[in-house]
Amino acid sequence: MFRRVKSKLLRFLLIAIYSLIILVCAAQLNFLWLFGYSPTKRDIVMPTLNVSSELYTADSVLIGRYFEEDRDPVAYDSISENILNALIATEDVRFYKHNGIDFIGLFSSAISTLKGDRRGASTITQQLAKNLYRTRYNKSQGLLGKIPVVRIGITKFKEWMTAYKLESKYSKSEIVTMYLNTVSFSNNAYGIKSAAIRYFNKHPKNLRPTEAAVLVGMLKGTTLYNPIRNPKTSLARRNVVLGQMQKEGYISNGQFESYSKEPLNLNLNNIEERSNNDSYLRSAVAKWLEKWSEENDIDIHTAGLKIYTTIDSRMQKIAEDVVALQMKELQRRLDNTWRNEIPWRDKSGNILPGFLEDKARKLPLFASLMETHKSEEVVFDLLNKPKKMRVFTWDGDEEVEMSTMDSLKHYITMLNTGLMAMDPYSGKIKVWVGGINHRYYKFDHVNQAKRQAGSTFKPFVYLTALESGMAPCDTYEDKPVRLDFVNKKGEKEVWEPKNADWSFSHRNMSLRWAMARSLNTITAQITRDVGWDKIVETAHRCGITSHLESVPSVGLGSNDVSVFEMVNAYATFMNAGKRSEPILVSKIYNSDGKLIASFEPASKQVIDPQDAWLMTYMLRGTIEEPGGTSQALWEWDLFRENNQIGGKTGTSSDYVDGWYMGITKDLVAGVWVGCDEQSIHFKGSHNGEGSKTALPIYALFMEELYKHPELGVTFGEYPKATVEITKKFNCPSPRIVIPAPVDSTMMQEDLELFPEEEIPLPETIETEF
Predict the structure, then answer these.
(1) Model's pTM, two decimal places?
(2) Would you say residue 549 has pLDDT above 90?
(3) Which of 382, 380, 342, 384 is nearest to 361 (CA)?
(4) pLDDT > 70 in the chain, percent
(5) The domain 69-275 is classified under which CATH number: 3.40.50.1360, 1.25.40.10, 1.10.3810.10, 3.40.140.10?
(6) Which of 69, 74, 415, 517 is 20 to 30 A off residue 392, Cα-Cα?
(7) Distance of CA 554 to the CA centre of its chain
(8) What is the pLDDT of residues 492-510, one digit of tens each?
């Protein structure tokens, strides 16, 4: 066909044009898989970004993000002119004069390269094409991409085509905005807004010329010119950018002279906030949304969602402050309890041999050192060598001289806690404190950790008694009790529980009084009469979801449960017998601001309203009855305006776990305190009971909360019963002098039902050498 053309010049020109058309078509169609992926028309029309999702409290406070790339796109009019001027002056001075490919720039770059001055010729639009469509990633390369020199040519050609398509679809302002929203600025900052906040704690609209020059200068090499890691090179690069701005007329000579003498003036105050992004609450919400994300095929890390939790930021702050204050004091007490003694002990009080060494063997560092040195003796010598490190303390992170083994001991001997509070009627979770510090202890002690509930489980025994026909005024004698039973192995066993103080009063006591004093003997008698299988069923019906071993000791809290379950179950009492599944997320909006999901709790009547009301009355007995185990609450300012509080303390064997469950007319809350390692605990009741560990956290939390009635938690009496109360419940106990209450289930060794749960080691034990 081309031979018919007489003119050689025209013939070669036609061949070149036809070849170009064929190349374009072949590249677009990925002919024979030679060229790899090229953006389609739809991709060009609707380019997508991985946009971080934002997590808010119910009162619209931003508390975290989910991202693969921490990106928050901004509009053109939200970008400072200084940024635009610095970018164009440095990266693409002819940006407004080309259609995506700057042929003059290409020619100039080629001449400069021949002279030994290598300069890039990619336009801003080409760089946008590369960022948006990953044209240089392996998955974008075809078979020809395996040939080194050809690969570069094909990649460049596809970037040219994509740049031209972008220019044909978008205005210059849209292109430069998309570019600034896609580029990486290191330190997990993607896009100009994240970068402006990360390095200068400003929005991009407010950046000065010097600040804009720092960020634009980073685009040449985000590591080399990182102002945090390499401030000297960053400063030099900033001045190069300022020089370009002066050359192109964006700043005057005088301004250049003045600006180039300024220091970097970084403002990194926001880095600490960003580093704390990974919180207990953020992790809990991510887990909460796993099923929803899967069902709706939405990745919360890239979809740019606005996720609203049920958490009240003000209540959350009060809870976190109280936990920090009280846990610092409790840690001091635990440290004083053991002083220079080794704290990890078995049930008989004997030191556990090789305990710390076994924990060290589970560290990733240990396995790494063993690969190198092949000898445990050598590895432990290294682990015992002191070195400088930073460790978490309640006085802040401290720089100390400590070995890895000392660091390990430091972290595993720290008390931890879990606190959750919810509205019992709506099911909305208001407070979620998963532990003392998420950076160091990732394990969530609200929902992940399960520990023996101790006496906080006893209300399910008394509820079962009410459901069997008993009334709060029915009586049992506080006397020794013996239960004969057959275990799962078919073996006969005898259980003879003792009260926490190892005494028996031989008084006849009402159910309300007995529960208030948390007497193991009467709880055991009721268990015998109603059946332990029935108690298990009752607990599950109220909201306990963990497996419960059906044994005579079930009512004394021998099973492991979570704070989350216990709060849910106690809320059922206050909600007139309706169990409302707790919710942590209320609404989700997409990136366009459209509501795409809302969540309401499923509610089901699981207890007769009369029995539910009677249970709230009986829980008040722990404060009102003689010797009630919650009477320590009178030490706090909690009982104005006839305020009514019900609650239950709990302490597991050997003071390993301390609990407090509290209910008011507006809020149900649960607190657990203990060490993750169950072999480390207080020695006695004076410091180790739930009334001494968990109850003060609850009391301080409520006391502070009552100072802020605008948060919706106020003094007042419980709601009136919604049904007629036909059972006798008003039977005042005799006003007798009773020693300070002791509340511990004190389970015998032969009834230890479950092995110690394996808890992940703290996340930041010093491991560097």
Answers:
(1) 0.78
(2) yes
(3) 380
(4) 81
(5) 1.10.3810.10
(6) 69
(7) 32
(8) 889 999 888 888 999 999 9
